[in-house]
Amino acid sequence: MINTIVVVGRLTKDPVIRYTPKSGAAVCTFTLAVNRDFTNKDGEREADFINIVAWKKTGENAANFLKKGSLVGIHGRLQTRNYEGDNGRRVYVAEVIAERIQYFDKREVQGGQAAGTFPSDNDAPREQAYTNNYADVGVPIEISEADLPF
């Protein structure tokens, strides 16, 4: 199955970082405002507000380098969960679990780091052999008349 989400938008407020009580893993949450591709009847663009969750090193980097208004790209997966609310009713939540965060603002981010991709816990070097499956496309083929079936 495929579960991949890519969104680009601006943070609506500064990210919030917390640490899990048992393992101490960092978890950073923020909301991204993502403009729709079309305008409403008044000619204005509406936005969707998407909850983002970044774990461990990705979350720590987001908390350290992002702030309200930062333009970022998020590559991750959609996750749903539910819980019982204070009033006893079931609450359903959909959020994007960020696997990679790309910083798009031109200015430098906090701490003197240049803009770019924040490393994630999944960023292990990957080597892939390149195979050009189309190397022979457009190359003339020699066929003799004896090879033709008619």
Automatic annotation (TrEMBL):
Gene3D superfamilies: Nucleic acid-binding proteins. Transmembrane segments: none annotated. One of its GO terms (biological process) is DNA replication. One of its GO terms (cellular component) is nucleoid. Keywords: DNA-binding. Pfam families: SSB. This is Single-stranded DNA-binding protein. It comes from Listeria booriae. The lineage of its organism: Bacteria, Bacillati, Bacillota, Bacilli, Bacillales. The gene is ssb.
